[in-house]
Amino acid sequence: MWDPSETTLYSMMMFLFMETILEMYLTRRQISVYKQCKTVPRELQHVMNSDTFEKARVYGLDKAHYGMFKMIVCDIVILQLELYFGFMAMVWARSVEIAENIGLNPKSEIQVGCLFSLILNIIGIFKEMPFKIYGTFVLEEKHGFNKQTAGFFVKDQIKAFVVAQALTIPVAAAFIYIVQIGGQYFFIWLWAFVAVVSLVLITIYPVYIAPIFDKFRPLEDGELKKSIHDLASSVKFPLGQLFVVEGSKRSAHSNAYFTGLFGVKRIVLFDTLLVNKGLPADDPSLSESDKGKGCKNEEVLAVLAHELGHWKLGHVAKNIVIMQLQMFLIFLAFSKLFTYGPLYEAVGLPAGEKPILIGFMVIVMYVLAPYNTMISLAMTIMSRRFEYQADGFAQELGYADELGNALIKLQLDNLGFPVYDWMYSAWNHSHPTVLQRLERLKSLNKEGHKSKTQ
Predict the structure, then answer these.
(1) For the whole model, what pTM was predicted?
(2) What is the rounded CA–CA span in Å between residue 333 and residue 370?
(3) Is residue 261 part of a domain?
(4) Dihedral, CA atoms, 191, 259, 298, 385, nearest 10 degrees?
(5) pLDDT at 312 over 50
(6) Is 307 a catalytic residue?
(7) In what order do the strands lie in the sheet with 239-245?
(8) Where is the active site (predicted)?
(9) Is 391 a catalytic residue?
(10) pLDDT for the residue numbered 17
(11) How far apart are CA 173 and CA 184, in angstroms?
């Protein structure tokens, strides 16, 4: 009969294995769709030719096969072996040894914990790097989306690592300290600390961190800039600055977003969203493949009307509240479980040794995995509902046709495949499919016209 630590270990391994099998099953369903669906859907036949549809189909198929391979290697082989052989316990023991060798106090959980966090992140980079390289320079390159040079990629990874350590190591130290001194209700102090840190990061990220990785330029004066300011004013959005980010140096995919929690906010447009990257047609930096791509001004406004809908309808605030509630519940569960010895023994630690960071990781990543899965599915369902509502907001502003055109254009430019298995989409997609959104916009438009004539 298994002892409590073995029962804990095999229960965690079994759930993670079954979850991966479920995700692989859903991916196999979508692969079948890619293989069987070879004609353009009727709703898109007027804008999508067979050649583009075939490219999107092959791109989707390649991504799905790559996703299957990565799940097998990372989630079935590596993760299961790490759990079974006590990988985290090995890293912790090594951190204690290194701490002693470099003059740190091996009995200080804060000092060893910071070193443990650093070593774990370094190992994580080596595990993830082959997949990043393949995804960027093979998969995305093959389908024409990668715009990164090897030098840009290396510098990007180094900057990301340095920034990540500068943020995570102090937070890890503070996390351990709060648990140590916080008493019986340390989870409340922990939640308050993490809430403040997350809100600060959301506030400073677009101003100080994002420019480390990408170049931002103010949107040039002109018709589009004026129209965006007029649109923001019409819904009382406190727009301060308008930026274009040179996302085309990284990828050919398009996007737009707004940032800022309090007071004045900024809107950021990816240059790939704009026609000719927002540059004059004769600009020497434009390649022939870039010319003519992107959305017209009215379509850009429609995309922004959708994004402003998220703000106006309170979706951003609701997500923040839900995130904070989630963090509180996680810390509460952690406070109730982190003293349970078999959790630590299950991942290879000696009896009686209970490092706070390992306890938190085991509880959040493995013990609460079923809860996390259910919450993730619920959040996906809610996100899709929010997307429909934001589309409806854009429709009420009179942008239904333009938003539909923008969705189609972005779908074509990004080689998005328009047909999805319903189970795969419900599990994986935070946004409804383009066909679902177009159908909803069409019905909203009809209802809108009816109400105006009554």
Answers:
(1) 0.88
(2) 13
(3) yes
(4) 0
(5) yes
(6) yes
(7) 216-218, 239-245, 265-270, 256-259
(8) 307, 391 (proton donor)
(9) yes
(10) 97
(11) 19
